[in-house]
């Protein structure tokens, strides 16, 4: 429960603020940044929540802004921090970008949103689709006066009634993101698959949907045998439209979907994954003159699949200059802002292997503190369409609406890199790989 | 001249005032927007109160909202004028549009002006019974707002009873806000010292809450779950029932719903006796906890702090999941630090290799703080898992080999703890450590190395030379280093009296004469006296066997842990501190203060300092102080010097070491041994580490000394020491 919410610029000046309870004066907002700076100066960490003189400061960062909540009680930290994140995403949906300027330009509507999204410090409606139905920039031009959508308080708080489409269609995107970490010996130290099923729903009325997956637990509980492979999802998270108790009972995924685009569910598997795109680099470091890289990429998936838009980021010393590249395929660019070079390959066929070489100059004089090089891992971005690592399949999507229309479900699969697909395989040439103990 | 021109701000407000009274609608509205814009940038526009107020009655919803917003901000400064707004407010609560009704009642509750309160009760009664759930849910919270301002009004008007009835509302959002309001009122009443339970959750209410839980919005679920965790029952069946109904919430996409569900389960699981069911719950809890790590970093951090607590209670909770806590290169530092702690918690025989190679990787990153913490984690792993200690030491040696200053220093500090835990096992490492002597510039690292040298003085050929370096620069060193040097030299003297008499004499002289710190002086006097009266006793005390150290399972007292687990996802559970320590309240009973005091003492002494990282500065001294501490208990020396030392008690030492036995027992046994064979011969085994034998100029192990040598040593120090002391008193 928050007493006050404020958005601050990087100098700690509040751009907009809203007080929900009287127990924390708004003057405390201005104390936030000095405390942060003081902590940094003392070499202490600045954690998302901290307490000072009986006031708790909870904050998140978004680009060049701080979003800050103040509280005097022993409040629910997870709830407040998540609310701040939700506030960011709602404001982004309203203004495309959330930055100082869009806040200054839209202060009226932000006040309205802050009034609607939280009351007396308790989060209320944070669904931007529903909010957009009754809080709009153009509201005063409307002839008819807006009323609260029934959905705001309905048990089905995410869908309004009376939606009509000429053609009833549903698009399902099954997107799997692979996070993995390969250590310097080439072993996968950690890997996980984060899956998400995203829907674009263009359906009339109040349709009841049921989604069937090749879920191993479901097959086991219902005693049915799976045709083909069944997968074991370690943890599943659902959009609030899914009836959780039914899923708990018999693993049925049943729901009334929101209109338009949303994420129906996400799941996680920690089954070991072989690196789909393998990269290794041999580094030849001539201190004070140059550094050379030889990079090898290998597509370790079936021949009939193709990885698109592959981007390989190989870290180089901050002070490297005069880059020279030669690649057997694709294009290479130097990205000094990231202290790396990027090898871009539009299409990488399954089983294929390519090489590239890079050459950089190094300054002859180095500072004393550079004795330890930053050892950032190689990171890779890619997309493999029509393929899922886990083998998840949509078995059916049943759509029932009382008007009895027929609707078509479309399904797409894609596998891509997660936010942490890294390989520590850039090795000094000649140095033996570090053997695990 | 200056009177001619009005200050520009006033001019702006003057113009705004004119615009606010314009006959054109659009112009008035634009003026209101400008007023609000000025308010946003914290210009004072309170003077426009009457002008803004005139624009309150309008069909334009946006304009109405802006005026309301203005009133909320300035009602407190203009209490007389607020009265003028009351009529419109009351009228608006009768509007045909539910949005306007809700807006009016919501804003009235926020005005916080004494005068308006009397007018709020009637419209509030009406709104609580409104047909529209949107109005009802807003009105429910308004009762809590009113209670905050004037509790009597809520009680007189029977609003509490109305709220109780509203728990049965057909609309789940209304139920959720009603629960929020009642919980808020309850919390306020408790703070105010009320003993009665304003929101008593009966079993009937419980069932209603369980039904609403499945239907309401995400935030509503959080409220209902917190209310469920307050439900008191000792009935096992009922607890089981609650757990079963709450478990499905683990699948919710909102992390705060998941954590709220974890809280309810942790509380109600206390009454569940069935092992099977408990295990099942724990098993179901693990995957959602891991998934919390796919949230944004700030949420991850909150989750990690809570997971840390959960693991202290249930170490088996995430047994096989250590890898998910491996740090990502781009994780913010605060996330990495928490992950490190959890990784060490989860370390076991099966995963220690993976952990070590990961920690070694971290130790070569750029962030100095993170590197240091990673090295500390290696030390903690060595202390936690006996079987892996040797591998940890090898990793540390590799790190020392990098010769990066802060890496070496931290590794030295960590090595000291390993020597404490496994005495005379890794002596082969000592030459490598000593070779880095000159690199050390941090007091803690220096003190640690000196401690090691003193402890193994008999095995280090040139110990007197090494310590001599520090004795030479004694007065320039920091106090922890001085204290360590003092103790180490005395240890050296007791082990190898032959060549070190001069050194002892010098250090005692310097410490007693030229040192500013009373602690250092006092300790020097104690040693001096001890050495001069009874060298045998000195040996027994200074070279006494030290109790082993171990890694604690908990960082807070068991009592506090239970309390914090009951508040999962709150700030208290994030800070790992009881609520009273950070919520300024001024109304704490003496009992609670005392209890918390004990908790805090535990917290401080047992937890954060000594136990978690045995290495941090001050307590490194504490650990090493044992010999000095033991003195005054066993020997009862007289004089000022002795009494001041009493401040650090052996009880604290016991706490640190994790043994809770009577400290006196330890002493008795020490002295028992001492009289028989003072220097308990150190194991003669040369170096268990294959590759690290003593070679070249490195010192070689000394043969154990016989007591007779010691006894026979005539110490000129004794004489002069006594004379000095006598002269002093």
Folded structure, characterized:
- The complex is a heterodimer of chains A (437) and B (729).
- Chain A has 437 residues and is α+β, with helices and mostly antiparallel strands.
- Chain A folds into 3 domains: 4-152, Beta-Lactamase (2-Layer Sandwich), CATH 3.30.450; 169-273 and 389-421, Immunoglobulin-like (Sandwich); 277-363 and 374-385, Mu homology domain, subdomain B (Immunoglobulin-like, Sandwich).
- Chain A has helices at residues 32-41, 77-95, 100-105, 107-117, 128-134, 216-222, 244-250, and strands at residues 4-9, 14-19, 49-52, 55-62, 65-71, 118-119, 122-123, 169-182, 188-202, 208-213, 235-238, 253-255, 260-269, 277-286, 290-299, 306-315, 321-327, 331-335, 340-349, 353-361, 378-385, 394-400, 408-423, 426-428.
- A 9-stranded mixed sheet of chain A has the order 11-13-9-8-23-21-16-19-18, with no helix packed on it. Chain A has a 5-stranded antiparallel sheet with strand order 2-1-5-4-3.
- In chain A, β14 and β15 (290-299) form a beta hairpin.
- The longest helix of chain A is centred in the N-terminal third of the chain and has 19 residues, at 77-95.
- Chain A is globular.
- Chain B has a domain at 1-74.
- Chain B contains 39 helices and no strands.
- In chain B, α13 (218-230) runs parallel beside α15 (255-268).
- Classes of the chains: A alpha+beta (437), B mainly alpha (729).
- Chains A and B meet through β2, β4, α2, α4 and β7 of A and α2, α4, α6, α8 and α11 of B.
List keywords for this structure.
heterodimer, A: 437 residues, alpha+beta, Beta-Lactamase, Immunoglobulin-like, 5-stranded antiparallel sheet, 24 strands, 42% strand, B: mainly alpha, 39 helices, elongated, disordered C terminus, cytoplasmic vesicle (chain A), Clathrin_mu_CS (chain A), Clathrin_mu (chain A), transport (chain A), protein transport (chain A)
